[in-house]
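ok so I'm stuck.
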Amino acid sequence: MNLRFISRRSLLKNGAAALGASTLALGSRAQSRSSGQPIRIALVESLSGPFANTGEAVHRNLLWAVERVNQRGGVRLAGGARPLLLTRYDSKGQNEEALSALRSAIDDGALAVLQGNSSATAAALLDGVDKHNERDARRQVLFLNYSAVDPVLTNERCSFWHFRFDAHADMRVAALMDVLKDDRGVQRAYLIGQDYSFGQAVLRESRKEIARLRLDVQIVGEELHPLGRVKDFAPYAVKIKASGAQAVVTGNWGNDLTLLVKAAREVGFDGKFYTFYGNALGAPAALGDAGVGKVIAVADWLPNVQTPESAAFYRAFRQRFPSPAEDYVHMRMQLMIEALAQSLERAGAAEARPVAAAMEHARATVTLSGEGGRRAAFNVIGRLERGKRRWIVVSTPRSGWFGCAGERGGGIAAWLDLARRAPTMLPDHNLAFLCNSGHEYENLGAEESLKAAAPKPDETHFWLHLGANLAARDWHEGLFGLAPLAGTDSQRYLVVSPPLLTAARRLFAGLAGLESPYPSDRLAAGELSAIIAAGYSSVAGVFGLHRFHHVEGDDARCIDPAHVAATTAAFGKLLAEAART
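replied:
not stuck anymore, here's the structure
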């Protein structure tokens, strides 16, 4: 797989999904095969104080990326190969210290300064780099930014010397809002952030996008807190819970995120977190099992589908940094170092101006080994053509992540039961039962079914779609972890055409999450959306989430046959009623 940075003006629309790498890092003591003088690059980051863990995580990722370049021979220049040398400077979380570190790095001969964990610090460094490069043309430096995402840095403050390798805050907010706009379980949201340029930008853009996409969502709180100085977030967590918010939107990072989610969990807040960095250091541990299915994060790389190559890539990092506290790998930092190394080679000299020009106008490619090609997949299709005038269609997906017992098991069981009973139960219609594969590939199997197997919309009396988590088990969060409950997870949604709303409320009364159906002209998701868009006017469908949705733990524990049977019975009655209308 080839992952490319096109140019720094290009919009980062999609995170890199890099699956594996075959080269193993050999550690800082490994001897580089290059023999020239090292090309110095300087990390300026908080390596002490409240955000020290984030700085150390950055250093590990950059060091590993540098080692990988050096192990293949370093940077190939006209005078011979030269290794990269990473030196670290502690900014102590202070802009003045960062500027002092910048001066030291320049005096030490650095070609590039690397920083990202604070947009305020990035702005100060950018100003320092611009002024230095204008004064001292012989010692010009690049500024490579891996995560300072205030949009101002590449808009109003755009600089020839500055390259950002992360989506800026407005892009990340757009990704979060793309999920929130379809999350009808959220009617009240609480905005909280760090009180500096980045945190202010996140709240400002979130407020604007919520107003644009979800007029029905009420913002019940909006708050900025001091950056890195709050030791106890309990007062904030109490206010969040008391507000009745069903979701928290935050750009917090480092300990400010870890302590916030820990406090929210301790006061009993059970809503969702829409985050920039909910997958980052400390946050998953702070959330624990309580975060499963309730945390949304914008991440640029996640090995959802493990292959031998992907496993080798991750294993190589863990062999280099084996401590559990070090288990956090950044793909974009690998990309940044590769972009620098390859731009050096294109420029042909270790000088800032030609390297910047090479990075501005050229492509930097990271080649990673991974699994490609095609995989066999098939839809299961059953049709009973009786010569009747109208059709009834029942569909369900048959593929999912991992074992997907809760996600898919209930829908497939219901589909099979209804297929057995439908010929007798629905004697006045032709029948089509579609069980589609390729759901994870943008509903590929459903798309093929709509083209080749489904009756035409004007020939279809009713379409029932049995989507994800038809009747997944609910869980109790106790002091000793998760315990299965006898009930069904209520995070499932019933959608029906408006004329069927009254019947649906009656038939699904007492079934958690389904007793309050939504009209199909207001809510739909997944394959049901495609069915409605194709012109099928009379529809019903179910979809939802559960505690182990899309994770490896979605096994037989996550489903109870009795609840599947009760939900299937209700859908059978809905089918019969729809057939009569």
